[in-house]
Design brief:
This protein has about 150 residues and is of the alpha+beta class. Helices cover about 30% and strands about 30% of the residues. It has a five-stranded mixed beta barrel with strand order 2-4-5-7-6. It starts with a helix and ends in a 10-residue tail after the last helix.
Length: about 150
């Protein structure tokens, strides 16, 4: 093999190694940013994303919102009309947060229920994530479970 071909082959190999490393780093970065959307029924079935960060979607139960006096700590129950999950959040809630409203909470499962880091309230009646819409449609066909007593 002549020296020119060796240089070209070396250059091609270096470019391929750089592409593989860049692809691997991008894949790892994307894996850390993926957030699964689960419903209370999914959590009851044991699919709680192995204690990793995920999104919980559902409706805030009527009469379940409890605020701790003098703090930003809020507890409430999220339901998909079949199962319920107690949620604890410390922070300022969105203006559109209220009982009977659809929300998406980002966080992880803890011993006392779901510990939320972020709460997003549904702001438009025309948009709903497909997973939440499917879960609510499925829940409408099942017998309605009333909300549990507030946490």
């Amino acid at each position: 093999m002549n020296p020119t071909r060796k240089r070209r082959l070396g250059f091609v190999l270096i470019v391929l190694i750089v592409i593989v490393i860049a692809g691997t780093l991008m894949t790892l970065a994307l894996r850390h940013n993926v957030r699964y959307l689960l419903t209370p029924t999914d959590i009851a079935a044991g699919r709680d994303a192995n204690k990793q960060l995920f999104r919980l979607g559902g409706v805030v139960c009527e009469g379940s919102v409890r605020r701790t006096t003098g703090t930003l700590d809020v507890r409430f129950i999220v339901t998909d009309r079949v199962h319920q999950v107690p949620v604890r959040y410390t922070g300022i809630l969105p203006d559109l947060f209220r009982e009977g409203q659809s929300i998406i909470a980002t966080g992880r499962i803890a011993n006392d229920g779901f510990r939320a880091d972020e709460i997003l309230a549904k702001h438009d009646e025309t948009y709903m994530p497909k997973e939440v819409a499917d879960a609510i449609a499925k829940g409408k066909t099942l017998p309605h479970t009333p909300c549990a007593p507030p946490p």
